[in-house]
Amino acid sequence: MLPFDFEYYKPETLKEAVDLYQYLDQQGKRPMFFSGGTELITLGRIDLAYTDAVIDIKDIAECKVLQVSGDHVLLGSTLTLTQIEKANLFPLLTKTASQVADHTARGKITLGGNICAQIFYREAVLPFLLADSQVLIVGSEGKQVIPINEIFLGQLRLRKGEFLVQIATESRFVRAPFISIKRRQQWDMGYPLITIAALKTHDLVRVAISGLCPFPFRSKEVEAAFNNKGLSIEERVEGALEVMPDPLLDDVEGSAEYRLFVLKNLLFDVLGALDDVRV
């Protein structure tokens, strides 16, 4: 049970959802777009999340898209991770999503919910960062299509009243060689320590990481060091570690030093899997 009451709305169209948000906001309420609800329930119980009104977008058709259209894979924001796994339209995403939480939770966690969450990990965004995916956002100014690497900077930079509708990914990235590894410190289904996803395109390895910092990221500086084939593999890994962004997580799950140790070994694993692959 949540320690507060809220109004519940279930619009059927994007316009209805956006208009409803503006109306509720003008009434002095604090509305929240809602697709799965796992974070609201979890954080609301410990007073870290609050809303006066929930706008449930799960029934909006555009948010439930799961298809290949031309040379793009289109995935709606309200698809559950389980639905994405079963469809397997983007194998790197399938592998990465299958490592989030446990099977029961993945049936409730939505793609948009994971990407827009407040938690540190948000692993579902990693494949999209690697694939230069495009996000469809809707708000008071209408629909906008924006490269994810321009709008996801530690978190999805949505303006007030906007929400994520779909993500489009080019088929050439969907077919690229990849690896996705998750390391936990304690048990098989415990909180992650480090998750790394990588794919290879144009003879370069792209890397995205979750769990090292308080946000998921893909770094051009890290990739430049990682792909410098004028150096030994050891030097390339050390060079990548030297340009990791700040701050580093240092908590009960693992110290900053231990996370870097785990990541170092994962970077060797990535190069072992992809460095000699020709694409």
The largest pleated sheet is described as: 5 strands, antiparallel
Strand content: 15-25%
Helix content: 25-40%
* Helix-and-strand structural type: alpha+beta
Instruction: Domain count, please report it.
Output: 3
- In the CATH scheme, what's the topology name of the largest domain? Uridine Diphospho-n-acetylenolpyruvylglucosamine Reductase, domain 3
Q: Based on CA inertia axes, which overall geometry fits?
A: globular
Multimerization status:
single chain
Please provide the ordered H/E string of secondary-structure elements.
Answer: EHEHEEEHHHHHEEHEHEEEEHHH
Question: Summed up, what is this model?
Answer:
The chain is α+β, with helices and mostly antiparallel strands and 279 residues long. The protein has helices spanning 14-26, 38-44, 81-87, 91-97, 103-106, 111-115, 126-130, 148-151, 171-174, 220-226, 233-242, 256-274, and strands at 7-9, 31-34, 53-56, 66-69, 72-76, 134-139, 142-147, 163-170, 178-184, 192-201, 204-210, 217-218.
